[in-house]
């Protein structure tokens, strides 16, 4: 009987050891623990600019929901299109909070690519952002043109252009006048006043009391919605003389167009 108890005790001890061993073992083929999720918030600022201007690549990268322990390396590339080769720009370090910043210079319209690699764990994240690059090009835009011939302009000749919008910058005007009586004169302006009331010194008007012309000048209206107005008066002709004018003027503005490349 004693030997039986000893065997039983030994068997129990052996079974306990086996259970303990099995409890600490990883079953064959079991999946490893999943890596913590990471993310990147990335932007190129500003959204558009001119060649050679500063651009800041910045953002955040790291473990989702954590604002510490995110230190790592962030590398940057540039490519004109998704199928074009990437050009390496350099790298910087993300702080423990995950924030990073990298200055570059704009070269062309395209896409910036960023890759984050945690400094200790084998985890990373990627981000992209688009930048538009343009050159400014000055373009003359015709606003209004008017021509008339053999006008007596007694007591006066008047023309009113249609209501229109203009840019806030100066308006370039070219005036041509050919009058038989040299002291024929008038005024040109851009105004929103339906009565076209003239006030001396107003930057949106120009007066020609002695009939100057041809001449080029600028108007600087205070309004951007209005109409062009011309009023011209011929000087009376001497006895037996004629009063007649050929008049024309054009108004244009220089607009800045963006040529993206």
UniProtKB/TrEMBL annotation:
<feature type="signal peptide">
    <location>
        <begin position="1"/>
        <end position="30"/>
    </location>
</feature>
<keyword id="KW-0732">Signal</keyword>
<feature type="region of interest" description="Disordered">
    <location>
        <begin position="27"/>
        <end position="51"/>
    </location>
</feature>
<feature type="compositionally biased region" description="Polar residues">
    <location>
        <begin position="40"/>
        <end position="51"/>
    </location>
</feature>
<protein>
    <submittedName>
        <fullName>Uncharacterized protein</fullName>
    </submittedName>
</protein>
<feature type="compositionally biased region" description="Low complexity">
    <location>
        <begin position="27"/>
        <end position="38"/>
    </location>
</feature>
């Amino acid at each position: 009987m004693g030997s039986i108890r000893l065997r039983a005790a030994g068997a129990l001890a052996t079974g306990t050891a086996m259970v303990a061993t099995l409890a600490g073992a990883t079953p064959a083929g079991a999946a490893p623990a999943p890596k913590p999720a990471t993310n990147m918030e990335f932007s190129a600022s500003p959204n558009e600019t001119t060649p050679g201007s500063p651009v800041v690549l910045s953002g955040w990268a790291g473990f989702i929901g954590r604002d510490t322990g995110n230190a790592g390396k962030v590398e940057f590339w540039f490519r004109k299109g998704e199928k074009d080769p990437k050009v390496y720009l350099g790298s910087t370090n993300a702080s423990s909070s995950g924030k990073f910043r990298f200055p570059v210079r704009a070269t062309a319209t395209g896409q910036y690519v960023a890759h984050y690699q945690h400094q200790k764990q084998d985890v990373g994240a990627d981000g992209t952002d688009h930048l538009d690059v343009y050159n400014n090009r000055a373009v003359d835009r015709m606003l209004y043109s008017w021509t008339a011939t053999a006008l007596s302009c007694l007591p006066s000749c008047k023309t009113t252009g249609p209501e229109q919008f203009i840019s806030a910058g100066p308006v370039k005007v070219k005036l041509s006048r050919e009058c038989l009586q040299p002291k024929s004169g008038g005024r040109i302006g851009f105004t929103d006043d339906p009565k076209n009331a003239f006030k001396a010194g107003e930057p949106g008007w120009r007066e020609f009391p002695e009939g100057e012309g041809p001449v080029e000048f600028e108007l600087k209206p205070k309004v951007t919605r209005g109409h062009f107005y011309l009023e011209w008066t011929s000087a009376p002709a001497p006895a037996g003389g004629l009063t007649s004018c050929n008049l024309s003027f054009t108004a244009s503005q220089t607009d800045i167009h963006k040529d993206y490349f």
